[in-house]
Structure to design on (254 residues):
């Protein structure tokens, strides 16, 4: 018995002789901290969102968007319900559809400039350092709505390495929930969408992953109600294992 990429191993499979043999082999190869597994997803590449998936920047993001909401006579909670996961100008266009795009772009530029220098309280999501170390030599890419400067700032503040392949706001024409960013990252990895597994926290990001025909692990509280393929509280519930022939097993503990 074996897996093709794009499949999910659920508890019945995890309890099978084949999978238990896989675990024994893993231990023999030195994986002696193997977690109890509830589900396993098989892929060849991992596509990672940044904010609230790898980096906890919620305090900064919410402070800036609450200020913007007040300035435009909008309810902050309504703005935040849209803002997570999108590029700033796309959030503004969604909330104020009649507003000239030039004004949205100008506001977005001002907010980005402030975000880049606002790193107090920016920390890694629980489990992110170990997760990034585990995938360092596996095919992976960062797919974020932040620009390059903000990516450098937040990943640096959180003490996390920046993947060699990263798709930032400068790399795409459309913001999440459009799948462009994830499809571009898959192409840069030389993989089909079905061979990629997305890690995301937001409604826009999860929708983008699904639109790209990818499976999605939802990370954090926001993701729980968005019907991802699997959901975790944080990255401490994830264990990554490199198998033969370029296959990656992502083990999820619920």
């Amino acid at each position: 018995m074996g897996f093709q990429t794009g499949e999910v191993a659920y508890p019945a499979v995890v309890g099978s002789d084949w999978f238990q043999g896989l675990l024994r082999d893993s231990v023999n190869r030195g994986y002696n901290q193997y977690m109890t597994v509830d589900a396993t997803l098989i892929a060849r590449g991992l596509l990672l969102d940044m904010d609230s998936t790898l980096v906890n920047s919620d305090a900064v993001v919410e402070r800036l968007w609450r200020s913007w909401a007040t300035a435009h006579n909008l309810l902050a909670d309504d703005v935040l319900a849209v803002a997570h996961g999108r590029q700033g100008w796309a959030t503004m266009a969604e909330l104020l559809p009649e507003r000239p795009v030039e004004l949205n772009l100008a506001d977005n530029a001002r907010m980005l400039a402030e975000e880049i220098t606002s790193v107090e309280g920016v920390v890694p999501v629980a489990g992110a350092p170990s997760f990034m170390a585990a995938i360092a030599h596996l095919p992976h890419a960062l797919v974020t709505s932040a620009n390059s400067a903000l990516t450098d700032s937040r990943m640096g503040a959180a003490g996390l390495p920046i993947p060699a392949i990263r798709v930032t706001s400068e790399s795409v024409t459309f913001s999440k929930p459009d799948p462009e960013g994830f499809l571009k990252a898959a192409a840069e990895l030389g993989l089909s969408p079905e061979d990629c597994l997305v890690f995301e926290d937001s409604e826009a990001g999860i929708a983008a992953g699904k639109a790209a025909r990818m499976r999605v692990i939802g990370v954090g509280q926001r993701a729980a109600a968005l019907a991802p393929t699997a959901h975790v509280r944080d990255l401490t519930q994830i264990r990554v294992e490199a198998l033969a022939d370029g296959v990656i097993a992502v083990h999820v503990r619920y």
